């Protein structure tokens, strides 16, 4: 059909989260390396309001919401020429990564 496949939105949301953290001075990968802390996604969702095509110029606007001691929510808006075409969220938790790969 020529429209963007829905999992692509989740890749955009994840990329936007990484870019937002990087703009604060340290990337998520640097935080993992330096502090042993990761922020895995435990819940996510999206709402698609209009079709998006591969050659559309889009803007993803992201914000951090609902911050508490162990988790936060990322809200994302996908806009085309100022029109909201999709929205989504990621709930992430702070997790310590151990050398054997376990998370706590």
Describe the structure in brief:
The chain is α+β, with helices and mostly antiparallel strands and 104 residues long. Helix content is 24%, strand content 38%.
Quaternary structure of the protein: single chain
Rg, Cα atoms, Å? 15 Å
Sheet with the most strands: spatial strand order: 2-5-4-3
Mean pLDDT: 92
Flag low-confidence runs: none
Helix-strand topology string: HHEEEEEE
Query: How many angstroms separate the termini?
Result: 43 Å
Shape: elongated
Q: Output the structural class.
A: alpha+beta
Query: What's the main sheet like?
Result: 4 strands, antiparallel
- What's the β-strand tally? 6
Beta content = 35-45%
Kindly state the percentage of residues in helix.
10-25%
Count, helices = 2
Which terms summarize this structure?
single chain; about 100 residues; alpha+beta; two-stranded antiparallel ribbon; 2 helices; about 25% helix; elongated
What does this molecule look like?
With 104 residues, the chain is α+β, with helices and mostly antiparallel strands. It contains two helices and six strands; from the N terminus they run H-H-E-E-E-E-E-E. The protein has a four-stranded antiparallel β-sheet with strand order 2-5-4-3, with helices on one face. Strands 1-6 form a two-stranded antiparallel sheet. It starts with 6 loop residues before the first helix and ends in an 8-residue tail after the last strand.
Fold topology:
Layout: H1 7-23, H2 28-35, E1 37-38, E2 41-48, E3 59-65, E4 71-80, E5 83-93, E6 95-96
Antiparallel strand pairs: 1-6, 2-5, 3-4, 4-5
């Amino acid at each position: 059909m020529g429209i963007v496949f829905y999992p692509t939105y989740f890749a955009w949301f994840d990329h936007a989260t990484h870019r937002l953290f990087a703009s604060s001075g340290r990337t998520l990968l640097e935080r993992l390396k330096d502090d042993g802390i990761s922020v895995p996604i435990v819940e996510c969702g999206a709402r698609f309001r209009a079709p998006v095509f591969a050659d559309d110029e889009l803007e993803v606007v992201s914000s951090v919401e609902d911050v508490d001691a162990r988790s936060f929510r990322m809200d994302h808006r996908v806009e085309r020429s100022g029109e909201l075409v999709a929205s989504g969220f990621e709930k992430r938790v702070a997790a310590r990564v151990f050398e054997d790969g376990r998370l706590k």
